[in-house]
Amino acid sequence: MDRQAQIDFILDHYENPRHYGPLPGATAVWKGGNRGCGDVVTFYLKVEPIGRIADISFEGEGCTISQASASYLSEFASGKTLDELGRLDHNDLIDALGREIVTQRTRCATLSLDTLRAAIRKRERELVAAQIKP
After folding, report:
1. Which of 18, 35, 80, 36 is closest to 54 using CA atoms?
2. I want to staple 112 with a disulfide (CB 3.0 to 4.6 A). Which of 19, 73, 74, 120 is the partner?
3. What's the order of all strands across the beta sheet hosting 53-61?
4. What is the Cα–Cα distance from 83 to 51, expressed in whole angstroms?
């Protein structure tokens, strides 16, 4: 993608966010933020028993890059397994968003992935705890 296409891609996700809003009946919810710049993202997940994302949404506020990243990631993650998402790293996300555009704002670009991972870890801890209960 050329630079203008990357900018258009980010702006489209910012102006027309995918999977935006609270998700009733979510099985995992996690809020993350960047204290330095004020970006906030909350992910809502419905995870199938087999470990696949059945539904996902997000809410947030902040800069164009952080919100576009959350929109892109919610679209990307829909239908993926937790294992597939576990293999996604910051570089994959930065490349998908356009490295040249987000390189100076990597904390903004990766907030969504860090928050999604935290929501997944929370869900996994809850499942383990439920199995331990008598």
Report:
1. 80
2. 73
3. 28-33, 40-47, 53-61
4. 8
- Taking alpha carbons only, the member of 93, 98, 100 closest to residue 77 is 93
Which token pair is 58? 């997000």
- Per residue in 80-107, pLDDT (tens digit) is 998 899 899 999 999 999 999 999 999 9
Residues 62, 90 contacting (CB under 8 angstroms): no
- Alpha helix locations (H) across 16-105? 64-77, 82-86, 90-97, 99-102
Report all structural domains of the chain as residue ranges with CATH numbers, in order of start: 3-129 (3.90.1010.10)
pTM of the model: 0.92
Residues composing the chain: 134
What stretches of 1-134 show up as alpha helix (H) in DSSP? 3-15, 64-77, 82-86, 90-97, 99-102, 106-132
Residue 19 φ/ψ, nearest 5 degrees: 55, 40
CB 78 within 8 A of CB 19: yes
